[in-house]
Design a protein that fits this description.
Elements (H helix, E strand, L loop, with lengths): L1 E8 L7 E9 L2 E6 L9 E12 L1 E6 L36 H8 L2 E6 L7 E4 L1 E4 L5 H4 E3 L4 E4 L2 H9 L7 H41 L19 H4 L2 H4 L5 E5 L2 H13 L4 E5 L7 H7 L3 E3 L17 H9 L3 E3 L11 H10 L4 H8 L1 H7 L16 E5 L8 E7 L2 E5 L10
Parallel strand pairs: 1-4, 5-6, 10-11, 11-12, 12-13, 13-14
Antiparallel strand pairs: 1-2, 2-3, 4-15, 6-8, 7-10, 8-9, 15-16, 16-17
Length: 417
């Protein structure tokens, strides 16, 4: 058992605890509060001058597939075909990427790794913890959604290749045709399964009646040919995972939402740079959104109206919003800096805490495991020397699943800061 003795605990989902203890066993939080007796033999971690905060979540990142320190190496964009839902980011994640180590140094303990936005449909996203030697030990959710992209990126990539899509019209035409193809594929398999069920029932009845050799009235149905592109989307149509839609401009955001409504699938908006222009629309449709990377420069026309006020406006309106670095577009180890700027520009302190932690967990569907300091959750905890939203504050220690994965003094020579 480990016991963190803290000056202050910010659980995020309940009120702040002063002079509190956090008890950890088998990687989970077992007690949180004040006035507890520390059992004999427990490992005591003295954080009496520190603030305990939940592990920070970046719900949209490219760390581990767009790697640091190795030039233009990237494994995040399979930009050879505008429709590639069958590719899986899990097959490209490198646990040794220095970006993950820097994430840990910034208190980021959980990220959702996404393919890039070159393709109209880019593939499966995966949620991982940011520390580990083996990817299998780091995975939180293998299927966290299917990445898709609206706006400038696909038309730029494929326009340069002189093939469709070259316009926003082309983006949607390609996407819509693909969705119809998936529906047809699912209908073909549904028909096969129905016929096979009837066929097997007849075989069973003959067996029960002792007529094993009796000729069947039905011929065994032919099994359809499998298609991995279409199979990858079945979970989306069954609403087991959402579409994760790259969209900056207001018109692209609306287009993405209307497409999702047309095909009755769930959707999350990634980036949402002009979301502040269509708050009523997003609220009416209850669309979750991840905001960012606001710290990066306005590199293209669709980011010309991005602003640090977007997070505060959407949060105040009652939308479920999180914060994304879009690493390496902006470095993920500075999530608290981004939240602090958003707080300066109108996001409440509680809102800043939530967009760093529990909101990302809710958007990813993993709030039962991470995102707050609560009994039963993973012991992903960050110890700050100072307030988490004070950009001068240093992170002293980081725990993932109760294990100490970063110590500022111990790791000072790693060139992380």
């Amino acid at each position: 058992m480990k016991v963190l003795m803290c000056d202050k605990i910010i659980p995020v989902t309940r009120k702040i605890i002063n002079q509190g203890h956090i008890f950890i066993e088998n990687g989970k939080i077992t007690k949180v509060g004040e006035g507890y007796e520390v059992p004999q033999g427990a490992e005591i971690i003295d954080a009496k001058d520190m603030i305990a905060f939940p592990g920070i979540i970046d719900a949209h990142s490219h760390a581990s597939v767009f790697e640091e320190e190795i030039g233009f190496h990237q494994d995040g964009n399979e930009s050879t075909d505008p429709i590639t839902p069958q590719v899986r980011v899990i097959d490209a994640i490198n646990p040794k990427d220095r970006g993950l180590r820097r994430a840990v140094s910034g208190g980021v303990t959980c990220i959702c790794v996404a393919p890039g936005s070159a393709n109209v449909v880019g593939g499966h996203m995966t949620t991982i913890k940011t520390h580990g030697m083996l990817l299998s030990e780091m995975i939180v959710t293998q299927k966290a959604g299917i990445k898709c992209a609206f706006g400038e990126n696909p038309k730029r990539v494929y326009g340069a290749q002189k093939k469709m899509p070259n316009t926003r019209m082309g983006n949607l035409a390609v996407f819509r045709q693909f969705m119809v193809d998936v529906q047809n594929y699912m209908a073909k398999w549904d028909a096969y399964n129905r016929k096979m069920k009837v066929y097997l029932r007849e075989q069973k009845e003959n067996e029960i009646n002792g007529d094993k050799e009796k000729p069947s009235k039905l011929s065994e149905p032919s099994i359809p040919e499998r298609n991995l592109k279409y199979e990858a989307m079945i979970d989306v149509f069954q609403k087991k995972i959402p579409l994760r839609a790259h969209a900056h401009q207001a018109n692209d955001i609306v287009t993405a939402v209307e497409l999702a409504k047309e095909f009755d699938v769930n959707i999350i908006i990634e980036h949402c740079s002009e979301g502040h222009q269509i708050i009523d629309y997003l609220l009416k449709n209850q669309i979750p959104a991840l905001i960012g990377p606001t710290f990066s420069h306005r590199s293209k026309i669709e980011t010309r109206f991005k602003t640090w006020t977007t997070l505060g406006k959407l949060y105040k309106a009652g939308l479920l919003v999180g914060l994304t670095s879009d690493h390496p577009v902006s470095p993920l180890q500075f999530q608290t800096v981004y939240a602090a700027i958003a707080h300066r520009e109108g996001l409440s302190e509680q809102g800043a805490f939530e967009v760093l932690t529990i909101n990302g967990a809710k958007i990813l569907g993993i709030e039962n495991r991470v995102g707050s300091i609560e009994v039963g959750k993973d012991a992903d905890i960050v110890l700050f020397e100072g307030h988490p939203l004070d950009t001068r504050s240093k992170i002293s220690k980081v725990f993932i699943n109760g294990n100490p994965v970063f110590d500022r003094l111990r790791d000072k020579d790693e060139n992380l800061f």
